[in-house]
Amino acid sequence: MRKREQDKFFNWQQACEFLNCSKSYFYHLVTTGKLKAFCLGKRKGIRVYKSSCIEFLKIKKL
Fold first, then answer.
1. What is the pLDDT along the chain (62 residues), one digit of tens a residue?
2. What pLDDT, on the 0 to 100 scale, is given for residue 40?
3. pLDDT for the residue numbered 61
4. Beta strands in the chain, from DSSP E residues, in sequence order
5. Counting CB atoms within 10 angstroms of each CB, which of 29, 35, 37, 60 has the fewest?
6. What's phi and psi for 34, nearest 5 deg?
């Protein structure tokens, strides 16, 4: 079964590029709950949903 495009996720580097932000601001967004994120273990790091990034950009533009 294919995942929808919006259900894909980014690592922190991809998310920073997509959001055009720094690593520290990205982690700020995650810790404050503005981006929906999850961990894949200690070595894999944090992942965020692409849909969460798109939603954040829509809210930011308002």
1. 455 555 689 999 999 999 999 999 999 999 999 999 998 887 778 999 999 999 999 998 76
2. 84
3. 79
4. 9-11, 37-39, 46-49
5. 60
6. -80, -20
- In contact, 40 and 2? CB cutoff 8 Å: no
CA distance to 4, 11, 15, 46, 47, per residue, from 43 (Å): 27, 12, 17, 9, 12
Domain definitions of the chain by residue range: 5-61
Within 10 angstroms of residue 19's Cβ, the number of other Cβ atoms is: 19
- Residue 52's alpha-carbon distances to 26, 37, 42, in angstroms, are 12, 8, 22
Write the CB contacts of 21 (distance below 8 Å, at least 6 apart in sequence). 29
Q: How many whole angstroms separate alpha carbon 44 and alpha carbon 18?
A: 19
